[in-house]
Amino acid sequence: MLGVTIGDKHSYHDMKLILTAYPEISPPKEKTKLVEVPGLDGALDLSRVHTGYMQYHRRSMWLEFAILAPRARWPQIHSDIMDALHGEEMTIILDDDPEYGYTGRLSVDAFDPQKVTSGVTITADIEPYKKRLKNTAKSYTVSGSLTANIVTERMPTVPTITSSAAMTMTHGGKFYSLKAGANTFPDVILRAGKNTLTFSGKGTISLEYREGRF
Fold first, then answer.
1. Does residue 23 sit in helix, strand or coil?
2. Which residues, including other chains, have CB under 8 Å from residue 74's CB and lie 6 or more apart?
């Protein structure tokens, strides 16, 4: 039976809730920056100037459930759900999309004693991207020079680069010195599609990063 895992609890197996409709997830709205320039038709779009890629606002998810219990227990079950979820920041995993999670703050709607059917609505203010539950990891052996072409999903991500020895790296026309151990560079951002990193030296390189998509 299709359900969702919220935090460490499954909607059906742990909370005895049945989804009455497929979860509704709104698309993220772009963070735009438009500047009116005299003499220019329309406006100048500066949305990508600072990062080189579009950024997005958080979005919403709606989860509608029926309660599998006698009516006399609905208020108690609703309180149990409120205690466990309301106001909490959690990860939501859909049964039919088990490799990704949506992270956001949960809100449980008020209990309506006049309703003749059992039900509870949970909404979540979620991050724009659903993220893989496990990091992506890649390893390379470098002896002289090695070029790695890394294809990533839509979400921009900063990799952790672990080197067995001091080496050098180029990315986007810039030069970086790698120390032995873990290295991170805020401006080394893997973006959607192919990313090229060139390593020079001798040893092993491991990259680890979290991928995400809409």
1. coil
2. 67, 111, 118
